[in-house]
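Write out the 3D structure for:
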Amino acid sequence: MSGTFHSVTLISDWCKGCTNCIKRCPTEAIRVRKGKAEIMTKRCIDCGECIRICPHHAKKAVYDDMSILEKFKYNIAMPAPSLYGQFSRLENPSVLNTALLELGFDEVYEVSKAAELVSCATRKYIEAGFGKKPIISSACPTITRLIQIRFPDLIDNILPIITPSELSGFTAKKEAAAKTGLSLSEIGAIFISPCPAKVTTVNNPIGIEKSNLDGAIAIKEIYPLLINLLNKPDSSPQESMQSGSLGLGWGCSGGEASASLDERYLAADGIENCIRVLESLENENLPVDFVELNACPGGCVGGVLTVENPFISMVKLQSLRKNLLPVRNSLKEPLTPEYMKWNKSVDYQPILELDSNISSAMEKLTEIDTISASLMGLDCGSCGAPSCRAFAEDIVRGYSSINDCVFVLRESMHNIAQTLASLSSWDKNDHK
């Protein structure tokens, strides 16, 4: 996978080697060796499932804090739609924008505003007959990276349009430069992120050479600062929302698909459900034009960098959307504009291949099958791999030894004990 930065990291001292994480990782990117978890960075797609499942909080996401504002002369806050669903008794979402200004941002550009523009561009793209059907949304970077690794036949189905957060950075910085006279390098576009995957794209973007964003702050990092301002008795909005109901709906699963105004769509959330959908798409032609997949349960509201229960957050967003116009932003261009399209190819990442030589790969695959068949098939994880087959693959790749399996080791020890017992018996008989 291109790039070296990953938001998901491991605090080794906190890890107890419990193997919970290896079971949940969708790309089998984690192993437990010598009593500690190890993240295989080439396989990691920053989904955050290991953060979600780790009982010892040994996995964490790396992101920026509020000090990043000191790097720029002019800072633009870019709140994800899911941010608005984190707060109780928030009747007017514009109040939250005002609170962001009070925190030190010079401007707020709602990502939900850009989401409406991406929805419009997607409709134009589909109506023009572009793309391979069904078209798969590129909004969730975890899903895009998952396809690059595990489902290369579906790469051509991915929508080649930049994400709402990237469009926000592009548009907001351009407008701010014209308004302030500052250069683009003096303006900071700071995304407020619900998940580590979107933090990663700031440093390692997908489909574009360089990200339009300059940093990413986690929702859970900024939440306590905002809640104090929202609880002030005199808190009131300075201006109305820039986006409508459809844009804010992107925070929940199905929001993007429904905004396409096309009934022939499929929306799924949760990484395991998304994998099942992708497997079905590989094997059959589903009667849909558009597929929206969100790795987190409930959509972006379920990201590991949020604070609210995703289902409660969905209810809050639905309540806020009732008071907004359906759509506030649309494109004037007849077709999807060039600045919204990818300018870099998204290619297959063959990190799961056993060997670049097909003949050698087939030999290794046969060896994996043989080793896997000889194992107990319990997928207990005691070897440090998520399954017996993954363990067999590790052996073939040279990462593990067959005796790392406790059952194989037990059988070996049992055979050794029997041999020693037989030798002892023979020795006694020889002295009679």
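The longest helix spans residues 406-430.
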